[in-house]
Write a structure and sequence with these properties.
Distance between the termini: 72 Å
Strand content: under 5%
Helix content: over 70%
Largest sheet: none
Radius of gyration: 24 Å
Shape: elongated
Length: about 110
């Protein structure tokens, strides 16, 4: 009896550890996917400004473009868009519920 309980505790702890590892990876991925476009835009903008001998116009504009790209990346990450095959199947029902029209019996279709 105690062996079964110990086995159950080991399996439960392994499942908890696996879940914690995945959530830490997702958090790190979200941070990188948000900051990388901003830093990349600033670096490219800096070299363009230096090469073309302009003010900080390219740094500012490419930084703002990077902010937009970072926000889009976080949105895609939160909605499981572009993820691995089969990964987003868990959320498909809730997505379909958000986008499908409601089944309202008071609406009538007009006949031609």
């Amino acid at each position: 009896m105690s062996d079964d309980l110990e086995d159950f505790e080991k399996k439960l702890q392994a499942a908890r550890d696996e879940h914690e590892d995945k959530s830490a990876g997702k958090t790190l991925s979200a941070g990188v996917e948000f900051t990388a476009p901003m830093i990349g835009g600033m670096v490219i903008g800096f070299f363009l400004d230096k090469w073309l001998e302009t003010g900080p116009i390219f740094v500012i504009s490419l930084f703002l473009l990077g902010v937009g790209a970072g926000i889009l990346n976080i949105y895609k990450l939160s909605q499981n868009i572009g993820g691995t095959v089969g990964f987003s199947e868990l959320h498909q029902r809730s997505k379909n519920a958000k986008t499908s029209p409601s089944d309202d019996s008071t609406k009538t279709e007009s006949e031609p």
